[in-house]
Design goal:
Low-confidence stretches: none
Helix content: 10-25%
Order of helices and strands: EEEEHEEH
CATH class: Alpha Beta
CATH architecture: 2-Layer Sandwich
Number of domains: 1
Strand content: 35-45%
Length: 102
């Protein structure tokens, strides 16, 4: 199972975020108790006032080569488990990130 699905012209990505990490990384897949896949990501930012969410958007934008404005947090604002909407043009780059061991 992939950590994303395609809905119309956008890609819906599931992420498990670790804030306040030592380094910013992205890659690999984490599965929840139901077996649902989430892309692993960690950021240095603290989970206060949306800082970790902003850092996640920036990290994804750099890794996928798309503008930050193309990435929208649609669920999980205060949770480690997040859902983001991205342009479907990044599907190939996202598949490569998910395959990496993070």
């Amino acid at each position: 199972m992939k950590p994303y699905e395609i809905d119309r012209e956008r890609l819906l990505l599931r992420v498990r975020l670790t804030p306040s990490a030592r380094s910013e990384t992205i890659g690999g897949v984490w599965r929840d108790e139901n077996g649902t896949a989430h892309l692993r990501a960690s950021v240095r930012a603290v989970p206060e006032k949306g800082r970790a969410n902003k850092a996640l958007v920036g990290l994804l934008a750099r890794a996928l080569g798309c503008p930050k404005s193309d990435i929208e947090l649609i669920a999980g604002e205060t949770s480690r488990l997040k859902r983001l909407a991205l342009p479907d043009s990044v599907a190939g780059a996202l598949a490569a990130l998910a395959a990496e061991q993070g």
